[in-house]
Design brief:
about 375 residues, two-stranded antiparallel ribbon, about 50% helix, disordered N terminus
Amino acid sequence: MIDVFNGFWHYAVPFLVVLTVLVFVHEYGHYWVARRCGVRIEVFSFGMGPEVWGWNDREGTRWRLSLLPLGGYVKMFGAAGAASTPAEGLDEMTPEQKAVSFHHQTLPRRAAIVAAGPIANFLLAVVVLALLFMTAGQPYTPADIGTVRPGSAAEAAGLVPKDIIVAIDGRVIERFEDVRSVVSVAPGQRLVLTIERAGNRMTLTATPQSSTTTDHLGTSHTVGVLGITPRLGLDQRRQEDPVTAIWQAVSETWNITAATLTGVSQMITGDRGTDDLGGPLRIAQMSGEVAQAGFVHLILFLAVLSINLGLINLFPIPLLDGGHLLFYGCEAILGRPLGERTQEYGFRIGLALVLSLMVFATWNDLVHLRIVEFVRGLIS
């Protein structure tokens, strides 16, 4: 019983806290912009399923705490459900009802309301990272090469100790962390390196080798490596002023987004395995491990998850925010909304894709956490 309680406290509680914050920020983005557009919000739910407790505010919105603490949603007037599909009887609404109905808003307003959720997640990441860079400081290691491993991609490219990497494929490199973020997502890809050697700049080409690594959470990743290490004694944390901190937070958010998109595209093309794809169980495990590592690590983890949540919701899959934006783009081109049947089939396909992805990610979690192996051992 004690082990169960400790497991719940160390893993489930941090996971639920992180998830609640991310979902609230996402849904509040929809809510805030919808209210500014004059749309009536009927329900703002924390969690899914039956209501456990709730209250009505002065605007008539039902704020509710639901039974299943996974996710949440905002239901707007004129929408059939959390997915914002059109409700029946839209044409029979009075002018007063149409004025506060989501589906009777102009196309730009509907698009703004839908896009506000993912945008809120990106803004949360920027704010969190900026505050950390101003207080705890930003990890900073100059991109000075300390050692070059024999037989590595770096040695083949002609890199030597004391070289300073100043750019990779035209992207300016300021920190050794920037080198890792570019190289790790480019295994087997040719990179153009601009380096500084003894005060002179020169250009070299390198092809990172593929390497399978296991992080401190026990998750395996296939990454690109050059085979270099930074010069010793240069690691530091640099507290930034507010303007620099915000700029660096935006830059870091952009880098994480680009790296995530690169990883997804590599999975789609088959250049990268799908073992890294995790679901709720692995997120719960990582939340617990990161929480035990310290508050700063948990906040950084929250920022990364917020970026990924915002990015995933922008994918052009019906049922997600990006799917709605895709339909609105078609509406802008055609001059009219897509037919009801087309939208219905689109949402069905989107639901099937989302559910399939969730099942696959959960299966990955079960394999990663050795639950499948444990069950097999019980029945064999």
